Amino acid sequence: MDYLATKYLRSRKIPSSACSGCGLGQCHKALVKAIDDLGYERNDIIWGTSIGCAGRQTFATWKGDSFAGTHGRVYAIARGLRLALAPEKRLVLTVGDGDAFGIGFNHLLHAVRTNAQMTVMVCDNLGYQSTGGQYGWTTPPGVVTDSSPYGMFEPNWVQPGRDVLMILKEAGATFLARHVSMDGGVLVETLRKALRNNGFSLVHVVYPCTTNFGKNALGSRKPVDIFRWIKSHAKPLGLEKEDTIWRTGIYLDASNSRPEFSQFMREKVEEIRRRHGNEGAH
Length: 282
Hints:
This protein is of the alpha/beta class. The chain has 11 helices and 8 strands.
């Protein structure tokens, strides 16, 4: 067990319950490394998780306070907690692509709209891998899955002209980024920036699934084959090629440019109390 795991994670959850070769550990470690780099202690962070691979494998790993939400509802819980918690506490959520961009999308939009402080890492294994490998909201075009045996042909949320991050930008997010899990130190640096934002931050991270995605889409369960395939189809913003699927980097950094939800609510309540208190005095 390495230093980060010993300091921040519960020993009974280490090593991960993920399948052999799964890239989720890269996502998880990058986020914990960013937290450590910023000097946060266990009691500074409240960690929320949801359903599916990402939720199940990061649930109750944090040595500090944590919670879980039913499918897609973790953002609603987080918004309530944001009002109840002390302002200096930080909310971190690890969710899957279905939780973020499918069943939970409406709740996600309201967290974005209100600019509630939470750093959301969307751990995207490109489909519903924990239920057998069906296609999902971010499955690349042409990819074979259990539910698209002739190739995925529905429009998805990451294609040019319909990028979900642009929807979140218009909804009011103050920090948005996309990476693949193999981005290493670049991913950690982006997560540090996301965590510093006193508002809504989301980092979309694509990671390899060896059990279902690799088998169906690439005909291989070898981690190196899947890792190389994903990495080869990811390019930084501005350096895209014809076969680029994922444009990586920071899409929006408007950190601390809008009032944070709980701060705004407290100030508004105090303003109402003063106004009506003064009216009562007359």
